Amino acid sequence: MPHVSRRRLLGTGLGALSLAALGACATPGTHSVNADPAIPAATGEKIRLTYWAWLKDFQKVADLWNAKNPRVQVDVVWIPGGNSGGYQKMYSALAAGAGPDLAQIELRSIPEFMLVNGLVDLNRYGAQEFAPLYDPTLWGQVSFTGGVYGIPQDSGPMATFYQPALLEKVGATPPKTWDEWAAVGKELRRAGSYIDCFAISDASPFAAFAGQAGAAWFRPEEDGWVINMTDDATLNVARFFDKAIDDGLVQTGFAHYSPAWFAAAAKGGIASITSGSWGDALVEGVSGGKGKWKAAPMPVWGKTGFGSSYLGGSTTAILAGSKHPREALEFAVWLTTSHEGIDAMIKHSGIGWSPAKDFVGTARQQPSEFFSGQNYFKDVLIPASREQNPKWSWWPVTQQTFNILSDGFRKKASGTSLVDAVASAEKDVMTVFRNKGLTIRKEQA
Known about the structure:
CATH superfamily of the largest domain: Periplasmic binding protein-like II
Helix content: 25-40%
Mean pLDDT: 91
Number of strands: 14
CATH topology of the largest domain: D-Maltodextrin-Binding Protein, domain 2
CATH class of the largest domain: Alpha Beta
Oligomer: single chain
Largest sheet: 7 strands, mixed
Structural class: alpha/beta
């Protein structure tokens, strides 16, 4: 593919910036490896690739590849989760001109690594030919400015995990719309349960709900980024949860999957959770919960929006310092599309949703004893994965955006609404973009 010009990269907010403009973010410099000639495949000699990841027991997965590929061996190095230290370790390595060949990077963090010229454009090594193997929505999450900057590794199409007995206690079935969800929530409160939590300290579920309603907060264009966090879809979601909190329908005193959440869920104090598909493994940690939970499609926003959304997800990306990007790409595709690779990631590393278009994993094709004998992958999650917002695109300061939004949500207790927090966050995020030397403008109606 033709090299994307520096001017266009800067225009879309994904270009190189000086160290001063990046502030505390380490950078390998203003030179892009994607401007250099493509690196040819190794010829004959044995090579070793290094993969930094926070997935548990991931070397056991790589060993399956190693057994069949003696010429290209993969060594896995465990690192802390991305924002818990893993990303800073990667940035520091890139700044030193070092680092691994491959790294686990969240879907939402890909643009931030592009901002520091940290990733190889995999289209230069033939990645586009593999696009038909992947969920098209996930492939869109790694595609920017005509390039591909990571291979989808796992994701989290959303569904609702619920306790049927608690809903039956108030004569309810899993709500099909968010309005029905609120009505069931009122009945559950009278019975002493909450229908769910609302994450005051983590804005990512709110973003997922807004995306389900049809929002697309950021869009890259030739003249810069376009922002619209105050569109009708987002504000309607904010008003809805403002009212849900005001009416006491949701628990805001503790977060999803916290010790307090597990205790409440075990005692019947939490009736359901709308979460990413990876939440099933966490729900299975509820004491005495076997046979007491099921899954259902997440509620929808009336006649608008989408049937589901996605929460979380990672990629296998190839960092700029790799001397063997062709071989690294070959491993990444095997890892994320072969039945052997996917089954091993599920067995050893507990990945969420497989990115492969037609394979969810052998173990996930059977009914679940914990979830009341339900084959919920087939009945709920596969349809959910096909009903997501394809227009949602990540942006270079995603984590800062979520931090700003969460700070605003925390003020709800002192009288600030979620609507106010979203409007204020939009202005603050525009300032963050400009402070990094990025061009951004507000979407015009």
